[in-house]
Amino acid sequence: MADDQHEEVSKKVSAKEEIRRGITVMRRVVQGRSRGIILDVYWNNQGQLIEPNGHTLTSFIGALVRNEIPITCDDWRNKELNESKEKIWSEIKRCFNIEEERRGFCMKLAGKLLRGFQTFLSSKFLNDADGNFVDAELPKKYESLISAEEWEAFKSKRQDSVFQRISATNRERASSPAYPYRKGRVGYGRLEQSMLQKEESS
After folding, report:
1. In terms of C-beta distances under 8 Å and separation of at least 24 residues, what long-range contacts does 23-31 make, across chains too?
2. Which of 118, 94, 90 is nearest to 38 (CA)?
């Protein structure tokens, strides 16, 4: 039980750090672009994003998602999001040297990062230690990203009985995974790259 609580706290801290990092990365990348600096990104043989700049691209996409997509979004495939997705992809291409065929990867990653942000907001501000709903006000630190109306709609969705059942099932599944989860905040491609580099240096 203590291990589960520690893991949950670690996830919250990591998400919070990633949000802060995303803002910093976005500012740095945009400033670099204004000076004509376009960042290269790299992929391994399995088509996975790796370093250098793999983490930078991920954080940049996360920051774009939090700015462009409402937290009330339930379906990443919704056609109403097409304009926002196009803007996200356009910003990525303006700042990174990336092929058009990587759009699918980036959009899939963007959807995953949106769900991660939604989960962070719920677990950090709308759930107590036992997973019960807490009617919290909009955190001031996120007022620039989330409107008051959007926050109220987000809370209403989190109180829905169907959502509560799905959330409880997901928490139970996460507490006893069939296979050990090793990558943490690092993508599988970058984890593999890191392991290979350690082997070469040993």
Report:
1. 23/63, 25/56, 25/59, 25/60, 25/63, 26/59, 26/60, 26/63, 26/64, 29/56, 29/60, 29/95, 30/95
2. 94
Maximum mean pLDDT: which of 8-12, 162-166, 184-188: 162-166
Q: What is the pLDDT of residues 89-129, one digit of tens each?
A: 999 999 999 999 999 999 999 999 999 999 999 999 999 98
User: How far from the centroid of its chain's Cα atoms is residue 84's Cα?
Assistant: 16
Please answer whether residues 51 and 78 qualify as being in contact, where contact means their C-beta atoms are separated by less than 8 angstroms.
no
Residue 167 corresponds to which tokens in the numbers above?
């959330």
* pLDDT tens digits, 146-165: 999 999 999 999 888 766 66
The residue among 192, 35, 184 whose CA lies nearest residue 116 is 184
> At 161, phi and psi to the nearest 5?
-65, -40
The position carrying tokens 């990867």 is: 105
C-alpha distance from residue 187 to each of 12, 43, 49, 140, 169 (Å): 18, 12, 7, 31, 25
CA separation for the pair 192, 194 (Å, rounded): 5
Euclidean distance between CA atoms 93 and 99, whole angstroms: 8
CA 194 – CA 158 distance, rounded (Å): 38
The letter for the amino acid at 202 is: S
Per DSSP, the three-state class of 52 is: coil
Q: Considering the entire predicted model, what is its pTM?
A: 0.75
